[in-house]
Design goal:
Blueprint (H helix, E strand, L loop, with lengths): L6 H12 L3 E7 L6 E13 L2 E7 H10 L2 E5 L2 E4 L6 E3 L4 E5 L1 H6 L8 E2 L8 E10 L6 E3 L10 E8 L12 E12 L19 E10 L3 E16 L4 E6 H15 L1
Length: 257
């Protein structure tokens, strides 16, 4: 990327690139047989060559209560059934190997973030993109032409202080955010922002870069966490750390072995 790009343009480009990994969860609309209501999010990840669908455990619990639920991956609608999820209740995490479901539904190409540990060190820009599908903006009904899914990206900064009010997550990452720094699917400010309910299970992506001013910069993202809690009065969103997800992956692999 060129050196003269603004921070907003950098974030816009990263949202456009990485929005493809984010997966909305829908269930039947209660007031319309043709409608569907969004209630959660997830994202596609690879770890040691295996594709996973990652979400929050409470989103999975909601899906089981709702009964019929679907997810959308790469514009393919997949029925959320016959998938075995591994869970980490202490960090509100759930994930499932999804290769068979992709093959069954003829999904040939999937965007995913690779979580396999690497050796390359990149500098942090200090910002994180919290991405998901807010429920209030994802009520679909073909009768009224409401068929477009709306992704929300919240630009946030990590809060390193100890947060005694976070009690449900063993290994939390806390982000503070400004409601004015939000970008919708058209990469425009959202104005009055929707409530983040429904974004649980989505990814928190840390913006990183490499290069020099003279030679130019390249911008990347790494996973910093999985969104699990929203505290409106504190303008804070809590994620289970990426380290906790990697530990859960390893524990699941050892169980399977």
């Amino acid at each position: 990327m060129a050196n003269d790009l603004s921070t907003v343009e950098i974030f816009d480009a990263l949202v456009e690139r990485w929005r493809k990994i984010v997966v909305p969860f829908f269930t039947n609309g209660k007031k319309s047989r043709t409608g569907a209501n969004g209630f959660g999010s997830g994202f596609m990840a690879t770890y040691r060559g295996v594709h996973f669908l990652v979400t929050a455990k409470h989103v999975l619990d909601d899906a089981m209560r709702h009964g019929t639920c679907v997810i959308n991956i790469n514009d393919h609608v997949l029925l959320l059934e016959n998938m075995y999820f591994f869970t980490d209740p202490d960090n509100d995490l759930a994930f499932t190997p999804i290769k068979e479901a992709l093959l069954k539904n003829k999904v040939e190409r999937v965007s995913a973030i690779d979580l396999t540990p690497g050796s390359e060190v990149r500098e942090s820009l200090g910002y994180h993109l919290l991405m998901g599908y807010p429920a209030s903006k994802n009520r679909l009904d073909s009768r009224w032409g409401k068929v477009d899914r709306m992704l929300l990206s919240i630009t946030a900064e990590k809060n390193e202080a100890e947060h005694l009010w976070v009690k449900k997550i063993s290994d939390p990452v806390v982000f503070n955010y400004d409601p004015k720094k939000q970008i919708d699917s058209a990469f425009q400010p959202t104005g009055q922002p929707p409530q983040p309910y429904g974004m649980s299970g989505g990814p928190a992506l840390e913006v990183r870069f490499s290069g020099t001013y003279e030679e130019g910069f390249n911008f990347y993202v790494t996973l910093s966490g999985v969104l699990v809690e929203w505290h409106e009065n504190k303008r804070a969103i809590v994620a289970a750390s990426s380290d906790s997800l990697l530990r859960a992956f390893e524990a699941a692999a050892n169980t399977a072995a």
